[in-house]
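User: Show me sequence and structure for the first protein, then do the same for the second.

Assistant: Starting with the first protein.
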Amino acid sequence: MKLYVKKRIPVPGKQWFKVGDHKEVYDYLIMVEHQGNEYYCSQCGKPFNEHGWVATLEGGHIVCPGDWIMTGVKGEHWPVKPDIFEETYEEYHENDWLA
């Protein structure tokens, strides 16, 4: 089996903490049936009223506080958990990419 590396294409990203931080992330409780404060996220442990929702190419995804919202080359968006972001992304510096 061959191994492949994604092409080095810089993509915009912004860390999300609350509704209003990113124009593509909506209030989670508006997007689904009312859950109330008594329900908590199994991934981050925070109540669902602190979460967002983002449309992706695969469908909608819940956004936990601290997730990164990335924007692809065709304007698509997707959330990335902070630990995955730290392992797979680095800040783009144009001078580093000049060959």
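Switching to the second protein now.
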Amino acid sequence: MKPLTSFVAVCALVSGCAVLAADASAVKDYGKIEYRNSCALCHGVDGKAGLQVMDILKQTPTDLTTLSRINNGVFPFERVYMVIDGRQLIKSHGDRDMPVWGNRYSSDGVKAAEYYVDMPYNMEMYVRSRILALIDYLNRLQVK
């Protein structure tokens, strides 16, 4: 009976490790997803001013990998946040009513699920989490 118990214990351990490995590989990088959906077309997949639309742009997009370097080694979190949420206007992004990414980072653009089951759904918190995920990804893109 002991060999069978040991075998079952080893199988449980191996299957548990496999489940943990599967969960780790399933983790998504939401900041990267936000970046690819909203920024990569102009700023490039790598953040170094993409070539996809260079011919139609009047101005070369900013190299987003050097934000810290041009800010004395400090990532400009507050300025980046204000650019994304529309408080800091960037001419090439468009005005507040029609930025290039539309209403992706406005609570007005995500009112579809005002309530989730019986709990109120906070749109501002949802939008803020998307912006913070994007900023985290931009921070990770910075060259050292």
